[in-house]
């Protein structure tokens, strides 16, 4: 199809009104525009969030509220979100980071979408605007099922992890700017030398980011040793549904998962 109109509403509510007539939401365009340019976009209208006032970042009382149209560069510039910089650097070049948005990354197919993996580990909450007003939804639900027709993710809220509790590792073909073979993100708190609580999210090993629930259960109450983490990584194979692509085979992704889960905690 050929794009016949690009709407640039000046508020989230105006964007929702525009979507009532159909079309796709566009954040920075790094995913949508390649589809448009190749003729693969099944729509004739786009609704850009560029001027909808959704590009801010606010941090208050240990909670970050990140606008859906905030770019990776904007996120990386905030000192309170410095823990995300290693992840952002692995995703794309500075040029792409100046355009790619937080909200858009929620809807990127794996093996891309590493920021979405981080948000899943952080147990983020999405604020969604729709014809019936605004609602909150766990990021896990948005990643699994998307949003309803006519709805727009307007912000993401995350509780900032305590110092020493954030872990991130990504295996890829190049050192930077490459799709994931395996991505691991985690918020894990230890107490008395053993794991008190943990959330582990994985990317590159299923069609969407997934929680490594089996690994989480195995780690609780145990120390973060080489042996225990290897066991947890092997258990995490039960949580994934790997695929073949140009970067790695499904077999390889499953094979190296325990190694990279361990490296997330013990570089």
TrEMBL record:
Q: Name one GO molecular function term.
A: oxidoreductase activity
Question: Which InterPro entries does the record match to this protein?
Answer: CO_DH_flav_C (IPR005107), CO_DH_flav_C_dom_sf (IPR036683), Diverse_Substr_Oxidored (IPR051312), FAD-bd_PCMH (IPR016166), FAD-bd_PCMH-like_sf (IPR036318), FAD-bd_PCMH_sub2 (IPR016169), Mopterin_DH_FAD-bd (IPR002346)
Q: Which SMART domains match?
A: CO_deh_flav_C (SM01092)
Q: Which Gene3D superfamilies match?
A: 3.30.465.10, CO dehydrogenase flavoprotein, C-terminal domain (3.30.390.50)
Q: Where is the FAD-binding PCMH-type domain?
A: 1-163
- Which UniProt key words apply to this protein? FAD, Flavoprotein, Oxidoreductase
Q: Which Pfam families match?
A: CO_deh_flav_C, FAD_binding_5
PROSITE patterns the record matches = FAD_PCMH (PS51387)
Task: Indicate what this protein is called per its UniProt record.
Answer: Oxidoreductase
Record the organism.
Nonomuraea glycinis
């Amino acid at each position: 199809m050929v794009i016949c109109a690009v709407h640039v509403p000046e508020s989230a509510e105006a964007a929702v009104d525009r979507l009532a007539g159909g079309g796709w939401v566009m954040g920075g365009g790094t995913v949508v525009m390649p589809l448009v340019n190749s003729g693969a976009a099944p729509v004739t209208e786009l609704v850009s969030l560029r001027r909808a006032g959704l590009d801010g970042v606010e941090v208050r009382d240990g909670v970050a509220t990140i606008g859906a149209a905030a770019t990776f560069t904007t996120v990386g510039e905030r000192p309170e979100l410095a823990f995300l910089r290693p992840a952002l650097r692995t995703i794309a070049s500075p040029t792409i980071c100046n355009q790619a948005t937080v909200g858009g990354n929620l809807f990127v197919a794996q093996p891309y979408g590493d920021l979405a993996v981080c948000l899943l580990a952080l147990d983020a909450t999405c604020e969604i605007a729709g014809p019936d007003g605004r609602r909150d939804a766990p990021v896990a639900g948005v990643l699994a099922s998307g949003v309803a027709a006519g709805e727009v993710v307007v912000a993401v809220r995350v509780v900032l992890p305590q110092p020493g509790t954030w872990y991130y590792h990504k295996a890829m073909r190049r050192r930077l700017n490459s799709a994931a073979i395996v991505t691991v993100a985690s918020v894990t708190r230890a107490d008395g030398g053993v794991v008190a609580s943990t959330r582990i999210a994985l990317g590159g090993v299923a069609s969407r980011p997934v929680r490594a629930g089996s690994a989480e259960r195995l780690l609780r109450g145990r120390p973060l040793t080489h042996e225990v983490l290897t066991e947890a990584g092997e258990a995490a194979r039960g949580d994934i549904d790997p695929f073949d692509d140009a970067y790695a085979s499904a077999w390889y992704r499953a094979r190296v998962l325990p190694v990279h889960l361990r490296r997330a905690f013990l570089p």
